[in-house]
Amino acid sequence: MAAKSKPAVKRAAKRKSPAPVARKTPAKIVKKKVASNRLTVNRTLAAIDAMHAENQFWNQPMWQGLIKGTLPLPMVKEFCRQHGIIPLHNHNYHGRLYVICPDPKWRAMIAEVVYEEGTGRIYANGKPHNELYFEFAEGLGISREDLLATRYCSGAIAFKSFFSAMCGKNFLEGVSAHMLAGEAQGPGYFSSIAKHLKKNFGLTDQHVAFWTVHDVADEDHSGIGRKLLEEFAKTEDDLKTVLRVVRETIDVMNLLTEDTWRFMQAAA
Description:
Helices cover 66% and strands 0% of the residues. The protein is mainly alpha-helical. It is globular, with a radius of gyration of 30 Å.
């Protein structure tokens, strides 16, 4: 007779602890966090100010020597030659920026900058800024012919190539390079340079007018750059582009300074 099978023992099913319920973050909080991390015009301008503060161009040996008046004449003369890559070639910078400006209202503002650089009829009593620079060179004993025949250092050549290309690339990047990076560094220091040039080398007010005029004119130009940024940087990507361009421009200007300083030391 077959053995009776034992009744199957039912195992009590183990109770699984309920899975933790993920708390949903309210949509408003998420949006607020995302918004708080977004790059804005004000934050972009603050970041640019921080870049200039970190760079401290005024503490670089070349600029410190000019601002404090501690450089001998041969070094100052070499500085004058190399720095000419900016004021003697400004039509390659301001001019291109004017041409690619897409808005008539803002183009008129850039035209005012170009007009001042080319004629000096707003700040410089009718003297073009390149003419002011020639007079600065003549005060140091450098003729116009010699200044125009300058053998530029590699940093100066690189600066001209970069800056002219940037000012003709697109308007937002051109404004950023020119007015938020380039012309934002100098105002406030040029008058001190002029004072020591007069004291140390007997230059006249006429000879140093290039520097005193630019203490005012460059501040005005940089102000225009900030207004243009508010108008043309429409997206966060635009603002990121601005920061990249300003960083690159500062780096190239430092290259110009370092290579000019090398030439100045050789001339001492």
